[in-house]
Design goal:
It comes from Parelaphostrongylus tenuis (Meningeal worm). Keywords: Glycoprotein, Ion channel, Ion transport, Membrane, Potassium, Potassium channel, Potassium transport, Transmembrane, Transmembrane helix, Transport. This is Two pore potassium channel protein sup-9. Helix 5 crosses helix 8 (about 290-315) and helix 6 (about 220-250) crosses helix 7 (about 260-270). The chain has helices at about 35-60, 65-110, 115-130, 150-160, 175-215, 220-250, 260-270, 290-315, 330-335, and strands spanning about 10, 30, 345, 355-360. It starts with 8 loop residues before the first strand and ends in a 5-residue tail after the last strand. The chain contains nine helices and four strands; from the N terminus they run E-E-H-H-H-H-H-H-H-H-H-E-E. Mean pLDDT is about 75; it is low at about 1-30 and about 335-363. The strands form two sheets. A two-stranded antiparallel sheet has the order 1-2. By secondary structure, the chain is mainly alpha-helical. It has three domains: about 10-60 and about 325-360, no CATH class; about 65-130, no CATH class; about 140-325, Helix Hairpins, CATH 1.10.287.70. Strand 3 (about 345) and strand 4 form a beta hairpin. It is about 65% helix and about 5% strand.
Amino acid sequence: MIEHSHPQIIMKEFPERHKVNGTLNGGVCAISKHSLERNMGLEIFSLHNKVLTEMEGRMRDTNGRLYIGALVMLIYLLIGAIVFVRLEYPLERIERETHWEYREQWTRRLLAVGIEESEIDRLFADIRDAVLNGIWVEKNVTSTPNWSFGQAFFFAGTLISTVGYGRVSPRTEHGKLFTIVYCVIGIPLTLALLSAIVVRLKRPSQLLRGVLNRRLAHIFHAGQIQMFHLLIVCLLLLVFVFIIPSWIFTKIESEWTFLDAFYYCFVSLTTIGLGNYEPGDSPDQEYRSVYKIIATVYLLVGLCCMMLFLATLYEMPQFELTRFFLKTEEDTRMVNENEIGPKYSQISEEDGTQSYENRFYQP
C-alpha cells in the first residue's frame, strides 16, 4: 500500500493506451487532482470535437436522401392539391352560384325600396363578419354569448393544446396581446405535463407487452409480438378515443353525421384544427358552457392517448423513418469504438444486456 500525505492526491487506474512497452508504469499511479482535471478537460474537448465531426459526416453522407425526401414531400403536396380541387371545387362552384343568385334577388328588392347599393354591400359584409366570428342574432332565439366562461375555457384549451380552431378569437388589442403571452407560457407547460402523463400511461402498455412476450414468445419472434402490441394499442385508441366519442357527438350535435363527428375527432386530436366543426357551435345549444368544458377535457385526454400511440409506434424500428435520412449513432460508434477515450461497461439489471458508454472518471 502506497501512502500519500497530500490530500489532493488520488488514485486512478490507467486505460490500456497508457501502458509503456506493454506494462503499466507502476500498475496504479498517483496523479494530482489538478493534473487529472486538466487531462479530463482536454479529453472532453477532444471528444466534443469528434462528436461534432461525426454529426457533420452523418449529415453530409445523407444529404442526397434528404433531397429525395423533400422531393417526395413536394409530390405528395401536389397530389393532395389536385385531389382536393377535384373533390371540393364542384360543390363550391354550385354553392357560389346559389349564393350569388340569392344576393342578386335581395339586392333588387332592397334597391326597389330606396336603399343604396353601397349600404346593401355593407349589410352583406356585416353578416359575413358576424358569421365568421360565431355571432348569431336570430328572431325568438335566446343564445349564450361566445365569450361565456365555458366558451372561454374551451378557447384556452385550444390554445395550449395547439389545436386552435379559429372560429372564435380575440378581437381586442389587449385580448390578442394576452393570447400571445398566454401561449408562450402555457404551451411548454402543457407539453411537459402531457409528456409526464404519457410516461405514466406507458407503464400499463409495457405491462401488456410483457404479458404478450410471456404468452407468445414460443410462437412468434420479438418483432411480431411488438407489432401485435402496437395493433392492440391502436385498436383501443380507435374504440375509446374516436368511435365512442364520435357516437356521443352525433347524439348531442343534431346536424352531425357519424362521419362528421369522426372527422372532428381526428382533425382535433391530430392538432390540425380546421375549425369547420366545433362542439357547441349552435347558439341555442343546451348547457353550452358545461358542454364546452367537457369537450376541452376530451381534447386534452385524447392528446395524451395520441402521444402514447406515437410513442409506441416510434419504438418500432420499422417505423423509425428518420433512419433513412440520418445514420444512427451505432454506425459511427462501431467505427470509433476504440478511439474515444476510456470506456467503462455498464450492466442493465432489467434485461441483463451489456452496453458501453463513454464515461470519464470523476474524482
